[in-house]
Amino acid sequence: MADPPKPKRPSPGEEAPEPDFAPFEDWLIDGPAGEWPKPWETDKDFSPKQKRIIADNAALLLDREAWHEKVHAFEAVLAALPDESRHKETRARYRIRFDRHVFADGPKDFSNYPFPCSVWFDGAKFGKGDVRFVEATFGDGHVSFKNAAFGDGSVWFSGATFGEGNILFSAANFGAGDVLFNGTVFGKGAVSFNLSTFGAGDVLFLGATFSDHAVSFHGATFGKGDILFKGIKFRSAAMAASGMIVAGNLYVETHFPEAVNFSRLEVKGTSSFSGSSFDKVPDFRDAKFDRPPEVAGMVVPRPKLRGRTQHAVDKNDVAKFRKLKSMALAANDHERDGEFFAGEMLAKRGTETKTLFGLLFNTLYWWLSDFGQSYLRPIGWLAVSYLIFAAACLYKIWPALTLSDRLWFAAEFSFRSLTPLFGSLFRFAPAPEGHVSWYQKAYKSLADAGVDIDGLIALGVAQSVIGTVLLFLLLLALRNKFRLK
């Protein structure tokens, strides 16, 4: 294939001639074919010239050598422009049209094809056979397959790379075969599969990369195959899949750095979100699963709180966590159930829990045991209680006993009072008849020395009450953690 002629270099002082884009005028958005029908004007027919342009583009596309030759020539002319800003502006004026074209039956292989500008396959029919865009490279323009119809073969976009424009598969029909977007790199534009229809084959997004804008599957319908979203990289893109219907199995295992909306999702087969992690609370409200979804290893952040009052930022988080909790209960995943319950309790702060008493109880339950999910917190608070009441006891008995006896008495007093259980151990421990312990002798010495014994008793009662609460929270956390009955 011969290279296009290089543009002639201007003489000193002579302006560079404008590159000749005449061979590509049929690709101009505002070219000789006049105004094209808008995407929603599906009942408006193309003009004879527009039909000819579409047919010529399709014939060129099916001729691999001719396609590469014309694209190479287009890029060479673009490169002759004097600066990068003009490259981008000029490229944006072009769009290659395949709208409503009916391709003949048989496999169509556009693997490794470069598409130098916007490409429109709106309403195109690809006929029977596989359609491959494996490792195709789409430029920085928009790419649209809206209302396109693929046949009974597989559709491959594996390893394809898209640029900065929007990628639209809205209302596309992917036929009965497998659909593979494995390793596809989507660019900075929005990606829409809204209302698209997938057949009985598997749909795989293994290792795909989404960049900045939202990825949308609103109302998309999948057949009885396996749907896999695994190893996907959502760099900063949100995912919207409300109303998505899956007749087969759905497997999601990836990290979501932005909002995820699975509200009104319906899954008829197996569904698994095991191993998925979310930086924002995902929305599964009104989602329906014919079989309990797998949520093991699913990582969901706690709701965001604000200000000194630590009130929840988003009141919708309450319903989101309740749905997550019901999913975990359906799957008998008690660990996730507890995590989602704790998230729900935090989300209620300032939204459903507004009274002073309610917020106080919520705060104490949170601080003391992380809403019954942490057994380390009650143990830690018991240790703090022991030290505080030992110090208080030492303060009250300071005038009496020797220093070492004061320290030993305060330590034993706080231990006996830590919980009623500990006090009972000493009270009912076997001892010889008539035996008086060192602790009892020290207690009598304190009374003889004029120490406020009633104050000591009150101190011990207060510590026992606090200890009883902490012991209950400890046992509750152990039950929740290990599901003891």
Task: Describe this protein's structure.
Helices cover 34% and strands 14% of the residues. It contains eleven helices and 26 strands. The strands form five sheets. Strands 2, 5, 8, 10, 12, 13, 16, 19, 22 and 23 form a ten-stranded parallel beta sheet that branches. It has an eight-stranded parallel beta sheet with strand order 1-4-7-9-11-14-17-20. Helix 7 packs across helix 8 and helix 8 (403-417) packs across helix 11 (453-482). It is elongated. The N and C termini lie far apart (78 Å). The mean pLDDT is 90.
Mean pLDDT: 90
C-alpha geometry:
elongated
Rg of Cα set? 36 Å
Portion of residues in beta strands equals: 5-15%
Query: Percentage of helical residues?
Result: 25-40%
Distance from first to last alpha carbon? 78 Å
The total count of helices amounts to: 11
Low-confidence stretches: none
Largest sheet: 10 strands, parallel
Tally the beta strands. 26
Alpha-beta classification: alpha/beta
Could you outline the blueprint of secondary structure elements for this entry?
Elements: H1 48-61, H2 64-79, H3 84-91, E1 95-97, E2 108-109, E3 114-115, E4 118-120, E5 131-132, E6 137-138, E7 143-144, E8 155-156, E9 167-168, E10 179-180, E11 191-192, E12 203-204, E13 209-210, E14 215-216, E15 221-222, E16 226-234, E17 239-240, E18 245-246, E19 249-256, E20 260-261, E21 266-267, E22 271-272, E23 277-278, E24 288-289, E25 305-306, E26 311-312, H4 317-330, H5 334-347, H6 356-369, H7 376-396, H8 403-417, H9 420-427, H10 438-448, H11 453-482
Parallel strand pairs: 1-4, 2-5, 3-6, 4-7, 5-8, 7-9, 8-10, 9-11, 10-12, 11-14, 12-16, 13-16, 14-17, 15-18, 16-19, 17-20, 18-21, 19-22, 19-23, 21-24
Antiparallel strand pairs: 25-26
